[in-house]
Amino acid sequence: MTAAVSRRCSSVDGNKNRKQHGSRLPTVSIALGALSVASFWVVGLGFLFGVAAVVCGAIATSRSAVVDDEAASLRALLGVVAGAAGITVSAIALLPMLAHL
Q1: pTM, two decimal places
Q2: How many domains are contained in the chain?
Q3: Does 55 fall in a domain?
Q4: To bridge 32 with a disulfide, which of 9, 38, 53, 78 should be the other Cys (CB 3.0-4.6 Å)?
Q5: CA–CA gap between residue 7 and residue 81 (Å, rounded)
């Protein structure tokens, strides 16, 4: 009887853990957005990280696991905003360089 109860409890805990860690794309989007803002001064790298952050965030918001989880949805939105900020800052940093070419 206790073995059946312990198996049942472990499967319930396993479902909770799986639901909490349903999608990693929102977290990847935030990380790429932060990297894009931090590396804006490297020619083109901040821009590429920003584009990757926006794409990952957009894909994450279209997934049902993220749509159902409000925290994951906000993380995906934060990743998109951070990616857009990285793209903007990188473009502003690249404009003076392009003027000298």
Answers
A1: 0.74
A2: 1
A3: yes
A4: 53
A5: 43
| In contact, 56 and 72? CB cutoff 8 Å | no
Residue 6 lies in a domain: no
| pLDDT score for 66 | 83
Please give the residue range of the domain that contains residue 91. Answer: 23-99
Length of the chain: 101
Tokens of 82: 């951070």
Mean pLDDT of the chain: 83
> What integer pLDDT is reported at residue 95 of this predicted model?
84
Question: How do residues 19-38 score in pLDDT, each as one tens digit?
Answer: 555 689 999 999 999 999 99
